[in-house]
Design goal:
Chain A is an alpha/beta fold and 346 residues long. Chain A has helices at 19-30, 44-50, 82-91, 103-111, 113-119, 133-141, 161-171, 213-217, 235-240, 281-296, 314-323, and strands at residues 10-15, 34-40, 58-61, 72-75, 95-98, 122-124, 147-156, 175-179, 182-186, 193-197, 202-208, 226-232, 256-266, 269-279, 304-306, 329-334, 343-344. In chain A, strands 7, 8, 9, 10, 11, 12, 13, 14, 16 and 17 form a 10-stranded mixed β-sheet that branches. Classes of the chains: A alpha/beta (346), B mainly alpha (50).
């Protein structure tokens, strides 16, 4: 179902005034396709702090109710609170974009797909940096292949404090991979692999972690054999992962990056494609979420819950993401990762 | 009797500590792999995004 194309622009509600949510609000406010933005947060002090940073079309408000006439809702709240907000928005018949990066929440959101289909609204799950941009890059990159049989994604860095806490939890929780047509559980912090990210991030040791990417990629690539997700961690991260966080996270992390490695067949030969991006993760997530919201305004999109690997017209969305300053990169050279040993890029 | 019990506890504690130290060492040792020797990243051009 399409989001109603109001000639004066769409009305958007953004939940979450954190590092990512605030950026989303400002990007939507800057868009001529949006007539109004309402920023919601459970912390009135935070809303007061950011009030002076908001654009002319934005107002703040309390509560979780979606006002009548809202065209699109973006949920950028702390992990664990997104599913209930998304369900309420779906019940209000509104297009919903979520930024979750947590396995259980991703499952809850995907489970809300039946209600979204019943109401005829799209529910985008995990429209952030990873998952999000990684799903989109996988979809766009797959057009180079006759068949994709492996997808491996990895990320470096964290956004705001909520993202940092989720990063910490993920490293000590069970990872979920798709291998040979079945789900496998592996220990977080295992499976060290040196992954090469766009400069200035470069090479980082990455490990399995509780990341939801496979849950979003597998349904979008029927027949894929392997889907794995890793994230960069230091030795200190791994040693302290089972413990509570020793200190309060920074307001925002530094430059991060994501990469997507696709392996498959092209014209009868093995082909490997590596795409990536570098940005502050909160900025990257905000660009992807805002571009997705604008992408769906006034557009026919299939009802139900899915990630960005299933988004209609992915090339157009990737161009919109690039136009907002998040330009993807391609690795050209030879990837000598532990288990590939093959050619990457051209 | 009491001395034997204390010895048992002491040896148990030593065994647990040594085990934890070994596990920690195993967890952080090793290298991740070999970095790419050639090539590099380049931003996608507008025509590649089309």
């Amino acid at each position: 179902m399409a989001v109603p194309a109001d000639p004066t622009g769409a009305a958007a509600v953004v939940f979450g005034a954190g590092a990512t949510g605030l950026r989303i609000v400002r990007m939507l406010d800057d868009s001529p396709s949006v007539r109004s933005v309402e920023l919601r947060d459970t912390d009135p002090d935070r809303l007061g702090e950011v009030a002076s940073m908001l654009g002319p079309k934005t107002r703040t408000g309390p509560g979780a109710a979606v006002p009548e006439g809202t065209d699109v809702v973006v949920v950028a709240t702390t992990t664990g609170s997104q599913a209930s907000l998304a369900r309420a928005a779906v019940e209000a018949g509104t297009t919903v974009i979520t930024t979750t990066n947590e396995i259980a929440e991703t499952r809850h959101l995907l489970a809300a797909g039946s209600e979204a289909r019943r109401r005829g609204v799209p529910l985008v799950v995990g429209a952030g940096y990873m998952p999000g941009l990684t799903c989109l890059l996988a979809r766009v990159g797959a057009s180079e292949f006759d068949a994709v049989d492996e997808i491996h994604v990895a990320k470096v860095g964290t956004g705001g404090p909520a993202c940092a806490r989720q990063h910490h939890r993920a490293l000590s929780s069970l990872a979920i991979d798709w291998r040979d047509g079945r789900w496998t559980r592996r220990a977080g912090g295992s499976g060290r692999e040196l992954c090469w990210f766009p400069d200035p991030v470069a090479g980082r040791d990455c490990y399995r972690a509780a990341l939801p990417d496979a849950l979003l990629l597998v349904p979008a690539f029927p027949g894929v054999d392997r889907v794995t997700a890793r994230m960069a961690a230091t030795r200190r991260d791994r040693l302290t992962a089972p413990l509570p966080m020793m200190r309060r996270p920074h307001p925002e992390g530094g430059v991060g990056a994501v990469r997507v490695e696709l392996r498959g067949w092209r014209r009868g030969e093995r082909h490997v494609l590596v795409l990536g991006s570098q940005a502050k993760p909160a900025h990257g997530a905000a660009v992807v979420a805002a571009a997705t919201a604008l992408h769906l305004v006034g557009r026919e999109a299939p009802a139900g819950a899915a990630g960005l690997a299933s988004i209609p017209d992915p090339d157009r969305l990737l161009r919109a993401v690039a136009a907002l300053g998040l330009r993807p990169s391609r690795f050209e050279g030879f990837a000598l990762s532990r288990d590939s040993g093959g050619e990457a890029g051209q | 009797m009491a001395a034997g019990f204390i010895t048992l506890i002491r040896r148990t504690v030593v065994a647990v500590v040594v085990g934890m130290a070994l596990a920690a060492a195993i967890r952080v040792r090793g290298r991740g792999g070999v970095p790419p020797q050639t090539g590099g990243w380049r931003e996608l051009r507008d025509d590649e995004l089309a």
